Amino acid sequence: MKKNSFLPVIIGTGFGSGFSPFAPGTAGALLATLIWFGLSYLVSSVCLLWLTVALILVFTLAGVWAANRLEASWGKDPSRVVVDEMVGVWIALLAAPAGHVWYALGAFVLFRLFDIFKPLGIRRMESLPGGIGVMADDILSGVYGFIILIVTRWIIS
């Protein structure tokens, strides 16, 4: 890796959460959930929705870039790269009401289950090249988590 590789490491490892010795993907998703939850108490519900969309867009693009840079020295889809988990859980959290701990926990758990077991075409996304493949499976896991959570909210209400 080049001398100026600090930024890809910070982005790719989810601000260092990917260096967790135990379950780095879970650590990255947990950090993203805590960021979202903290923001939910600082801004309005509408602002939280738009901030979450912005986080998803910015970190998806930055994640593809960082993963492409880091794969050159860390190998294909390295476990330390967790920005994909952050984006995935933020997608699932789009279905959670602001500040609602149980829905936030539900989004986190649903996302992680889809990410770990990779059903319904999620595993196939990993075969896409480079940073796109790193991000795509977690994006789809987040979409599935979002769908389950939004349907659950509709049934409950």
Automatic annotation (TrEMBL):
Annotated YutG/PgpA domain residues: 11-151
SUPFAM superfamilies reported for this sequence: YutG-like
The protein, known as: Phosphatidylglycerophosphatase A
Presence of the UniProt keyword Transmembrane helix in the record: yes
Superkingdom of this protein's organism: Bacteria
Record GO terms (molecular function): phosphatidylglycerophosphatase activity
TM spans (from-to): 6-39, 46-67, 87-111, 132-156
Keyword tags: Membrane, Transmembrane, Transmembrane helix
GO biological process: lipid metabolic process
